Each structure stands twice: as C-alpha cells, then as structure tokens.
Known about the structure:
Blueprint: H1 9-32, H2 40-69, H3 81-110, E1 117-118, E2 121-122, H4 131-164
Antiparallel strand pairs: 1-2
Amino acid sequence: MPTTDRYDAVSMLLHWAMVVLILVLFGLGWYMVELPDGSPERTRFFALHKSIGLTTALVAVLRIAWRLRHPAPPLPGSVPAWQAALARVTHVLLYLLMVVQPLSGYLSSSFSGYKTRFWGVPLPHWGWHDPVVNQLFTDIHVASSVALLCLIALHVAGALVHALTPGQNVLWRMLPVRRANAPGKS
Length: 186
C-alpha cells in the first residue's frame, strides 16, 4: 500500500526525466557555443539542443500539470519552518525556470533568422530576423540558465542536508528505491 510520505511513481519519473534532460541540455549548451559559427557540427548541435529543449518543455508542462493534481507529500515535522519555506520558494522558482528556459530559447531562435525544428518537424516562426530582439532573448536564456544552475545546486544541497539529518528521510521520498529503514516501509 502506498504511503503519503513519498512521491508517487509518475512524479518520480517526471522528476528524474527532467534531471537527465536538463543535464544533457547544459552539456550540449556549453559544448555547442564553443563550436565555430556556421560549422555543420554547430548547426547539428544547436538543432539537437532545440529539440531536447522543447522536449524538456513538454515534460515540464506535464510535470506542472501532474503536480497541480498530485501535491507533494508534506515535509516531516522535524524540518525547520525556514527550511520548509526555502524549499517551497526554490521549487516554485525551479518550475518557473523550467518554463522560462525553453520559452526564451524558442523566442531567441524565432528572431535569429533560423527556423526551429522539433525532431525534424518545422515549427511556426514567431518572429522575424532581428538581431537585437534575438540577443535580448538569448540574454534571458543565458541568465535564466545561470539562475537554474544555482537553484539546482541549492536544491541538491538541501536534499543532501536532509539526507544526512537523522529522522528526516526527505531525500528518500523522491528516490524510486526504498531505504531499508525508511518510515512507512511495509
């Protein structure tokens, strides 16, 4: 029988899918911007980054919709109120950036003069070739990626602190495997 101290399987799947997708996007992003402008390799990696980014956006929308219908389990009472508040703010900002990142990337692409394809399928071109507007959305995309990276670091640090704090078991709520001595284990 499921317990209320853990996330459900769909929440875990969407969380860990986002982890993998975001890590891949950061890796691709850092690699592709160093490639020579106009090179076929750069073009391929940008196309791949866009497709994975839009896939991530779809997973984020599914995740947000799922979360609205399936709230997170409550934190243990042993978690101090300020940490619970920080966790809530961090999660809201993470969700916000999961929308801002792909949206700013897509809009940047729309004003770059290059068409965006989603796994080879052409998408509507919402803008026109405008280097100034393209740079604005590129700057938003880059700044929000730095903010996202900082929030991820804060999120991981918080999970580790709670994992190392006796009696909290917060980290184990999102792991697909159960810890042998976790509360509620049947």
